[in-house]
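Page 42, continued from yesterday. The earlier attempt failed because a stray header line got pasted into the input along with the sequence. Redoing it now with the clean sequence only.
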Amino acid sequence: MGYGFPLTVADVLQRKYFQKAVVIAGKEGLSRTVKWVHVVEVTKISNLLRGKELILSTGVGWREDDSLFLSLLRQLIECDASGLCIELGTYASSIPKEALELANRHHFPLILFLEEVPFVEITHDIHTYLINQQYQMIAQLESYSQELNKKLLTVHHYREILTFLHSCLGHQVVFHMHGGDVEYIPSRPRGNLGAGVGLGGESDWPSAAVVKPISLFGAEYAELALLPVGRDINEFDLLILDRTATALAQHLLRNLYVEERRRTEENEWLKGWIEGEYSDQEISSYLLDHHPSLHSRGGVVWVCKVGTAGQKGNFDSTYFKLLCRSLFEQRGFLLFSVEMGRHLAFIAINLRDEETWKSRIEEGIKCLMASDFMQTRLSALPVGVGTFVPSLSSINQSYRAALEALKIRSRLDEQGASLFYDDLHLYRMIMVLDKYSDLREAINRYLGPIIEYDRKYNGKLLETLKVYLQCNGSKQEAAKRLFIVRQTLYHRIEKLESFLGANFMEANKRLAIELMIKAYDYLMGDGEALYAQRNAQL
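This time it went through. Structure tokens are written below.
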């Protein structure tokens, strides 16, 4: 397949109407690209040009005024015009010496027509050529894309795509996948050209290189670059590079998807691990077989509940797990996914400092919640994070803690409740109390009259009690947070004292009341049963 070369000033000089044209200055700029042709007869042109235009003029705009001509010439150079063609005779008879020096200094071609030429025919000829060249480039690009798409169905390694790119353009092709070696097609260049390339930033590439990042899951996964060989990189090369980068992203994603499917087949072994069936030695042996360079620093399990109720469309669990793995690997975890009934559990093996595991887990879950996949496929994703364990054979302890955290957060509608089991101190105590004692009766004893009063009169006493306790008894701050005047707050506190006793802010009693409020929030889904039980007692 061929590739499109840009039209240059030298190419234009070979065309029909330029056979008797003479280059009088700026000969070193004949390689300048020509993207369009304009006829210009005015001297203020800077706001009319976009760059790479070849200018035709009879000189009527300056009429032997050297200062006006020099001004026009400077504007053309500043606007990156391709060159200036002047018809001598009718309005311009000579070119000033200063203009010749300026053109030579900036390698700006000055071309003279020594006899009258048809500007209309020149513009028509060159514009027709440029338009045809664009059509040809589009056709070549479409042909390349079709061939590339065919290859995507059969290629086994991305190197075949890189070789195809090189055969099309002839430039040196460089590819660097995150965590891997730099690859060169056809071979590594001699010397230190490209020796420092990589994912460290554009400054690591040679100045002539054109680099295209390849992103997967919102993060840079690899880089594809062209190093010019024999000619400059042109617009056609950039379009081909862009199409190839897209194809490489599809190929890499497909390979990752296949790998994720293979991981799914390992789910049974992972179930045994998360249920505590294996020793440290068995786990280490398994991990080293699959990840020889792994150096574990403990781990943690986080679980989520993916049900049909929160789905907005077709839910691709394989893609979801692949997304999670990518996000958490970026944050220093090796992630294994395990399907446990209606729950999806993730074993996160820590590869960095233990001190930062919590913030990194939190950041990973936050990025997951903000991802396009979550926004378009799931309206909610309940999550619970277990306790961190230094021994991988203790992962089942973290798993059980994660399930408890998920259960607590589900009961609290996840509002204001931490993701982490270790942070749910009071709620963990409440779960034990609820399991081994009549927690509802205890809540009734402390809060029943207040709940009943609010239900009958909408007195907002329970809300007032919560805020008053949170403000450590500061009436001014409580009134401000409740958006009520002091007198209204005083009236509500008097009512609370009638139910709880005047000493309800005394340390021990206050602690019991706060615990009952947390318990009520935990059991508020059974609120009607609470009222019914108290009414039966009355």
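Notes: Confidence is low (pLDDT under 50) at residues 191-203, 525-538.
Reminder to self: strip header lines before submitting.
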